[in-house]
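Section 5: illustrative case.
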């Protein structure tokens, strides 16, 4: 077996093992890091996830538009000077 295939195989096994043991490691009888989980907690967490992605998209869009405007100003200045 080549070195790359062996590394890929070991990474896959490690990932599968980590995914299989993650939930039992941090929770016992429904009590996790955030305390006892119930429907209300799960609902509010999911609403947070739903709100996070539009905010992320809006923030990244604003950053991209400002960078594009800066690039256009720089391009205009270079054309004007040459």
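Designed sequence:
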């Amino acid at each position: 077996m080549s070195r790359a295939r062996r590394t890929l195989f070991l990474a896959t096994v490690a990932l599968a093992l980590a995914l299989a043991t993650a939930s039992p490691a941090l929770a016992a009888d429904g009590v996790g890091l955030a305390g006892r989980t119930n429907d209300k907690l799960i609902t509010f967490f999911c609403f947070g996830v739903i709100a996070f992605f539009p905010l992320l998209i809006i923030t990244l869009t604003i950053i991209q538009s400002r960078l594009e405007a800066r690039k256009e100003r720089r391009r205009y200045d270079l054309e004007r000077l040459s």
